[in-house]
Design a protein that fits this description.
Number of domains: 3
CATH class of the largest domain: Alpha Beta
Strand order of the largest sheet: 2-1-3-4-5-6
Distance between the termini: 43 Å
Helix content: 25-40%
Number of strands: 19
Number of helices: 13
CATH superfamily of the largest domain: tm_1862 like domain
Structural class: alpha/beta
Radius of gyration: 22 Å
Shape: globular
CATH architecture of the largest domain: Alpha-Beta Horseshoe
Length: 438
């Protein structure tokens, strides 16, 4: 029996890519194990959005180097695409480097390595096989990821995605609907549509659907309980997306709309293609919807040339929007990006100072926003049971984490179910309460 160990770094798209890899390997007769020491094949599915994630991969490769004798070691994903065959020089134990568009080739590549070839690299990007689910071995039995578009054409000066994932390639609407219907038929009640920029989706088939049309069609599938999507670029965020959410109860009450900075000057240097005013107009569409929609965002602090005044404008944006969640990061110089050539790179200490201030400001906002939920009864999709706290864990339609007690319920009885929870407590990152009814 052949075994494999697969570790994933990065976003939901990387997680879903790993589900595809696990499915491909399982179909080839491999069994997944929980630690690299037990594996014949060790795979690291990587992220290169930030330097920290990239360095973590190399650290892991070094950490387990002593366990790699007699094993095949592979680096997959964005770092593989970014570094290519240079990985072989930095980590000699690696035998395979494979980009995200080539996972379908893994059986052939592994067969060649097992046949005696020492090192292989598969880095093609423009392939129709990119979107095929390929017997994806999904981590959840009730929530499924579904990729609708790969790559990005925006060329933001800080972002390595156009290099690691390639140009935008949309999947045909019929292919998407076929997989979505199959997922619902298999018992999945929540689907999350994925892409580096889902709002720029353009159906390559004769149907010619845009993203709002696709949303409405997927939401209409009988049996689907919740439909999410991420990530949207503000430049392409259409008002009809908000209308679609209003008209389709299946669509979750949540929009992730990355702003990156609250300063027009920094947005221009980032090449984001919108102004603060234009971004706030789209936020106003969301806030003006007939039902409340939670808003989350991404923010980069310490971008090259960001002044204290620019930073204060970002802080003021937090106050003006009142985000339900913010994913915030220090600017990280990435290879192949235009920002490398910009002047005004800030010291790490200053970037760290600004990040700490921003996160503390947002923490207070989230504590206030979450406090508004105390006393409400909300629908929660139950994800797991935390035996350490004796609480169930789930998420609301707004993507808020809820920890709750359910006296008398067995530790396997609620997972995957939608239940009503009465909220009695709130922290900056989650809500807490008690089961109100089944």
């Amino acid at each position: 029996m052949k075994t494999f160990y697969l570790e994933t770094f990065g976003c939901q798209m990387n997680v879903h890519d790993s589900e595809k890899v696990a499915g491909v390997l399982a179909a080839r007769g491999y069994t997944q194990v929980d630690c690299p020491e037990q594996a014949d094949l060790i795979l690291y599915n990587t992220c290169s959005i930030r330097e920290k994630a990239e360095q973590k991969v190399y650290s892991r490769l070094q950490q387990f180097r002593r366990h790699s004798d007699g094993k095949l070691v592979a680096v997959l994903g964005c770092v593989a695409q970014q570094e290519g065959e240079r990985i072989f020089e930095r980590a000699p134990q690696v035998a395979l480097v494979c980009g995200s568009a080539c996972y379908w080739r893994l059986p052939e590549l592994l067969e060649r390595l097992e046949g005696g070839e020492r090192r292989l690299a598969a880095l093609e990007q423009n392939t129709d096989e990119t979107f095929e689910p390929r017997l994806a071995r999904r981590q959840s039995p009730y929530r499924a990821y579904l990729t609708i578009i790969e790559g990005c054409d925006k060329q933001c000066t800080f972002c390595v995605v156009p290099f690691t994932r390639g140009r935008e390639r949309s999947r045909s609407s019929q292919n998407i609907l076929r997989e979505a219907r199959a997922l619902v038929a298999a018992g999945y009640t929540e689907i999350q549509l994925l892409g580096q920029n889902v709002s720029s989706y353009r159906d390559p088939s004769p149907a010619g659907w845009d993203f709002p049309t696709l949303l409405a069609e997927v939401a209409a599938i009988p049996g689907l309980k919740r439909l999410r999507f991420t990530t949207s670029h503000p430049k392409d965020f259409d008002r009809r997306i908000v209308t679609c959410i209003e008209e389709n109860p299946v669509l979750a009450n949540h929009v992730h709309l990355p702003v990156q900075s609250g300063s027009d000057r920094v947005l221009q240097r980032m090449r984001r293609q919108y102004t603060r005013e234009q971004y706030l107009e789209k936020v106003a569409w969301i806030k003006g919807a007939r039902r409340a929609i939670a808003i989350s965002t991404d923010i980069i602090v310490g971008f090259p040339g960001e002044t204290e005044e620019d930073f204060q404008q970002t802080l003021s944006l937090l106050d003006e929007v009142g985000y339900d969640a913010v994913f915030s990061f220090k600017y990280s110089a990435r290879p192949h990006t235009a920002a490398l050539k910009l002047d005004g790179h800030l010291p790490e200490q200053e970037k760290g100072r600004r990040l700490a201030i921003l996160q503390e400001r947002q923490r207070a906002i989230q504590l206030r926003r979450n406090g508004e939920w105390i006393g409400r009864t909300v629908e929660v999709l139950v994800e797991s049971f935390n035996s350490a706290t004796g609480q169930w864990v789930g998420r609301t339609s707004e993507n808020r984490v809820v920890n709750f007690h359910a006296p008398g319920e067995q530790s396997s009885s609620l997972a995957g179910r939608y239940v009503q929870v009465h909220i009695s407590r709130a922290g900056p990152n989650s809500l807490a309460g008690e089961l109100a009814g089944l």
